[in-house]
Amino acid sequence: MEAGEIGGALLFALAAAAALAAAISSGAIDFRAPPTVGAPLGLQEAFSLFIRVFDGSNNSSSGAAGEAHELWVRVRGGVIAPVLQVAVWACMAMSVMLVVEAVYNCVVSLGVKAIGWRPEWRFKWEPLAGAADAADEEKGTGVHYPMVLVQIPMYNELELCVQVYKLSIRAACELEWPRDRIIVQVLDDSTDPFIKNLVGLECESWASKGVNIKYTTRSSRKGFKAGALKKGMEWDYAKQCEYVAIFDADFQPEPDFLLRTVPFFIHNPEVGLVQARWAFVNDTSSLLTRVQKMFFDYHFKVEQEAGSATFAFFSFNGTAGVWRTAAIKEAGGWKDRTTVEDMDLAVRATLKGWKFIYVKSELPSTYKAYCRQQFRWSCGGANLFRKIAKDILAAKDVSLLKKFHMLYSFFLVRRVVAPTVAFFLYNILVPISVMIPELFLPIWGVAYIPMVLTVVTAIRHPKNIHLLPFWILFESVMTMHRMRAALAGLFELSEFNQWVVTKKVGNSFEDNEVPLLQKTKKRLIDRVNFREIGFSVFLFFCASYNLVFHGKTSYYFNLYLQGLAFVLLGLNFTGTCACCQ
């Protein structure tokens, strides 16, 4: 479906809704009027009968409709409302947990920024000489350059817009480090022989230039990324390396990346991981990537910065980080028991007493790719919570306060509470409340707390303040996927361990302009997200009910906007060019 078709459909729908509202307000259509006795029911009469049953303001109904209405009122007030009220107060409690956690992280992050705190204040750091000066080491005047392994896991990294694998391999091979002290290892799990051949030729090209680069493949994709990283560490040359830097195929490190990170390990033997912050090459390519950047900015600038400054603990992002190989081995190595192998390793290394330091990657350019990525992360985090909670409680090398931070803040609030309350309260309970007048929603829970969370999210990136309305609506839709993922991981449902690689398209747009959309022949199931479309029907129904009858609340404006967001994303109305989708 093209942009013109979608725009025409939306304009038609909005015009029809406006005409219907005008007809209702003028009295041309009266849904409260009883149908003519003995006459066949038309559309208006049928809907009128439905309204007479469910509208609590009409208590003078008689006959079957009146009896049905009285039964509905009794069931609604005696059964449905009390059950939903319990859910409301549970959501209020979770909302308080969420806002306290968010405000705490924000205060710490702002404090770190205000005082200009840097990791060097807590951990010793001294610069190494430039790679060109490494020859002085042989004379005894230079500094020791340890062996570093650079791993680049990839899977079918070839898109029509740009060959991503070339960019990542080139960036790794151009890192400033003595050539005899660095090994670049390309872990290619590609299933396409054509792509494998291209990646292999690229590695041969760099090897001919004197770069120590190894191209490795596997016969199966067992364990996915974790399996590839684990297999890569089993080579004899890998066992000789003291540190291992990991870059996904969409990451292009700066040339001085190792010179900025490795010194932390040399002078601080307790440090097991140094994580660099991501920067994005395609954050302005579409509205979708702009909104995503707000989410990731909060994660990096607030959550990880606060974790590093307080407990020297946070989740490894899976890329743009350097590990001490001893820390990986002591933690038990890479494991493929969840889809968040990076978070799993980080938690296990922390339980062994290792500390982390938080000192530019690519954003998914299509809605479906982002949904898959968020599902994998949300599901894996909840599943890891289920599997490692006992280990955290039993750990002897971790303080009680740090255990509380890991279990309550890092896992419970962020991986379980946040996706649950965000979807259930604002997308289920609030819409349903317009039809259940007995249901009480405290104003501080549905208005003040969301306002605080919005401010906390926006405070670290004021340049994107104009995108907040889009971010709020976008996150409203994403909560459906995150809650489904969290439940799947927590209870290990059928889809909890699925792994789908996020496609990358690189920074292929010049001057930040998105090229014209191209027609593609796709099945309806690939072009339309039916979950979003179905849920939009529910939101539009609740909004229309609230608009017609008002009642004690007026949520219809917000509900219409939420429904519109579900429709737009349900029709994939965002992203980049069709050739990249």
UniProtKB/TrEMBL annotation:
<feature type="transmembrane region" description="Helical">
    <location>
        <begin position="559"/>
        <end position="580"/>
    </location>
</feature>
<comment type="function">
    <text>Probable mannan synthase which consists of a 4-beta-mannosyltransferase activity on mannan using GDP-mannose. The beta-1,4-mannan product is the backbone for galactomannan synthesis by galactomannan galactosyltransferase. Galactomannan is a noncellulosic polysaccharides of plant cell wall.</text>
</comment>
<comment type="similarity">
    <text>Belongs to the glycosyltransferase 2 family. Plant cellulose synthase-like A subfamily.</text>
</comment>
<feature type="transmembrane region" description="Helical">
    <location>
        <begin position="528"/>
        <end position="547"/>
    </location>
</feature>
<dbReference type="GO" id="GO:0047259">
    <property type="term" value="F:glucomannan 4-beta-mannosyltransferase activity"/>
</dbReference>
<feature type="transmembrane region" description="Helical">
    <location>
        <begin position="86"/>
        <end position="112"/>
    </location>
</feature>
<feature type="domain" description="Glycosyltransferase 2-like">
    <location>
        <begin position="243"/>
        <end position="432"/>
    </location>
</feature>
<dbReference type="GO" id="GO:0000139">
    <property type="term" value="C:Golgi membrane"/>
</dbReference>
<keyword id="KW-1133">Transmembrane helix</keyword>
<keyword id="KW-0328">Glycosyltransferase</keyword>
<keyword id="KW-0472">Membrane</keyword>
<feature type="signal peptide">
    <location>
        <begin position="1"/>
        <end position="23"/>
    </location>
</feature>
<protein>
    <recommendedName>
        <fullName>glucomannan 4-beta-mannosyltransferase</fullName>
        <ecNumber>2.4.1.32</ecNumber>
    </recommendedName>
</protein>
<keyword id="KW-0333">Golgi apparatus</keyword>
<dbReference type="InterPro" id="IPR029044">
    <property type="entry name" value="Nucleotide-diphossugar_trans"/>
</dbReference>
<keyword id="KW-0812">Transmembrane</keyword>
<dbReference type="InterPro" id="IPR001173">
    <property type="entry name" value="Glyco_trans_2-like"/>
</dbReference>
<keyword id="KW-0732">Signal</keyword>
<dbReference type="GO" id="GO:0071555">
    <property type="term" value="P:cell wall organization"/>
</dbReference>
<feature type="transmembrane region" description="Helical">
    <location>
        <begin position="439"/>
        <end position="459"/>
    </location>
</feature>
<keyword id="KW-0961">Cell wall biogenesis/degradation</keyword>
<dbReference type="Pfam" id="PF13632">
    <property type="entry name" value="Glyco_trans_2_3"/>
</dbReference>
<keyword id="KW-0808">Transferase</keyword>
<feature type="transmembrane region" description="Helical">
    <location>
        <begin position="412"/>
        <end position="433"/>
    </location>
</feature>
